[in-house]
Specification:
about 140 residues, single chain, Fe-S cluster assembly scaffold protein NifU, iron ion binding, iron-sulfur cluster binding
């Protein structure tokens, strides 16, 4: 399985990694089939994600997609962050092997889960804004 130079860079040198203490929203998603668990933290000021970090337990692709996703939403409005797709994350990483596509899906879901938590903390039902956050069923990893 070959990874792009960008995937390897984000795996070896992840950006925005670590627990955030003063977060506005936190989302955790995972896939028990392969063991990838992502926790995404966002800090929101004036509808803009001013800071973002993650903690991921999983394979190199899971770490790389988490890192890239945080880079792609930092400084963006919540609306723009919610538009980020797993396909955009994969393209930014110059692709992923087919068996690792689920990692990019988890990164997209982690962002949505963090935004949903942010809205809940504001007393707002996130479902009409964020939608349902379904479990990733694309995992093709060997257990």
């Amino acid at each position: 399985m070959a990874y792009s130079a960008k995937v390897m860079d984000h795996f070896a040198n992840p950006r925005n990694v670590g627990e955030m203490k003063d977060y506005s929203g936190m989302g955790e998603v995972g896939n028990p089939k392969c063991g990838d668990i992502m926790r995404m933290y966002i800090k929101v000021e004036g509808n803009v994600i001013t800071d973002v970090s993650f903690m991921t337990f999983g394979c190199g692709a899971a770490i790389a997609t988490s890192s890239m996703a945080t880079e792609m939403i930092k400084g963006k409005s919540i609306d723009d962050a919610l538009k980020l797709t797993n396909k955009a994350v994969m393209e930014a990483l110059d692709g992923l092997p087919p068996v690792k596509i689920h990692c990019s899906v988890l990164a997209e879901q982690a962002i949505k889960a963090a935004v949903a938590d942010y809205y809940r903390r504001q007393g707002i039902d996130p479902t009409p804004i964020v939608g349902e956050i379904a479990e990733c069923e694309e995992c093709a990893c060997e257990v």
